[in-house]
From TrEMBL:
Functional note: IMP-specific 5'-nucleotidase involved in IMP (inositol monophosphate) degradation.
GO biological process, one term: nicotinic acid riboside biosynthetic process
EC number: 3.1.3.-
Phylogenetic placement of the source organism: Eukaryota, Fungi, Dikarya, Ascomycota, Saccharomycotina
Domain of life: Eukaryota
Leading EC class: hydrolase
Stated name of the protein: IMP-specific 5'-nucleotidase 1
Cofactor: Mg(2+)
GO molecular function per UniProt: 5'-nucleotidase activity; ATP binding; magnesium ion binding
Keyword Nucleotide-binding attributed: yes
InterPro entries in the record: HAD-like_sf, ISN1
Keywords, alphabetical: ATP-binding, Hydrolase, Magnesium, Metal-binding, Nucleotide metabolism, Nucleotide-binding
Self-association state and partner proteins as the record states: Homotetramer.
Keyword Nucleotide-binding: yes
Organism: Tetrapisispora phaffii (strain ATCC 24235 / CBS 4417 / NBRC 1672 / NRRL Y-8282 / UCD 70-5) (Yeast)
Amino acid sequence: MSSRYRVEYQLKAHRKDEFIDWIKGLLAAPFVLHAVSHDNEDGTTERVRKQYAEIFQDIENLINKKIESDKQNGLLDNEDVGFSKQYEIVEKSRLKQLVPSIGPFFTALPLEEAFLWEDSQKAISQRRMVAPSFNDIRHILNTAQVFQFIKQKRLNSNTLKLVTFDGDVTLYEDGGSLVDSDPVVPYMVRLLESDIRVGICTAAGYDEALKYQERLHGLLVAIYSSTSLTQDQKCNLTVMGGESNYLFQYFENPETGEFGFRPIDKDLWLLPEMRTWEESDMDLTLDFAEQTLIHMKKTLKLPPETVLIRKRRAVGLVPGEKFDHIKGKTVRVKLSREQLEEIVLTLQNTLDTFKPATRVQFSCFDGGSDVWCDIGGKDLGVRILQNFYSPNNPIKPYETLHVGDQFNPSGLANDVKARLAGCTLWIASPHETVQLLCRLTSEY
């Protein structure tokens, strides 16, 4: 009979990041074997720190070898690798063998240096009761990516050219907006001052600019009011909405004082593969997703206030509102994590075998409080911006950084696809975004 732990582990496997869990396993050995407090506490800490650092150095070397292997097999291009190309691959990298779900790395990651920095700030190696955690490793990976871009800047090699951001929980709280006083705004302006293109790559799908202007008002005012930004630098701000469906660019009219976002015609930015998608296939995919969501709402006995919303390129289940007699006010209905995960996984699995859906790209994800199915994906959204900013010589993945909070695997989150188009930072709050941008912009 399976243990309760084994059953729960299998049921929750979709919430695991295999690479981070693998690193946790490697770090568990020195924690158990060497993190034993003796009379010489300083000596124990130094011994543990050394063991952790050596492990991160070894992982760093495995990543470098994987990058070389991927280059030889042509897997670091922007285009997807077809079956014929996969068939030609002779040998997997050692890291791919150890972590089968691992994706591409577009730059080296100085993990040993990043660990030592994080350890100096958070005393990870001094802990005796709590082993290095998922969040510890996530922070180390983020710090390593920032350190690498700083190093490349100093060497004037493969410098950062494009930074894209998710919206909710990355730039502002869930359902919030950017105001003038938000601490992230000055750092985004600083990126633009450094001739780095800035894109907001969000699942929020509006086909008009006004909604985005309302949510990003604080940033727009800061850019319009800036005396250090040139007009070209200001126009380097874009919004890629609905994953990869609507593109807007900053504009201003000095004569009238008008400023905001203007829509960009699709003929100017659609990727070649997206031009082959039939309108009927996209509509049928969303129709099927809509019927699945209606069925799930009934099957899981979701609150009647839960609203199904259909947009031109998306469909979703959103919690509505009801009057709370105890609190004496209207409150938002909440869906449990288990309900959200059941809906999105069912939606993904049913669409995977629906013929029209196989002829287009779609994204099913749990937004934290709602569930959506969008046509397209953030990998396409990032690639669109890479091509839009530089049509003749598109920005490369190793010159691109995407910042987001939705990186859980197995279709639960939509930022995870951005890993296919560039480097990434996995954050958990707008505060973390500010901290990482502070370090990054100190060199730009």
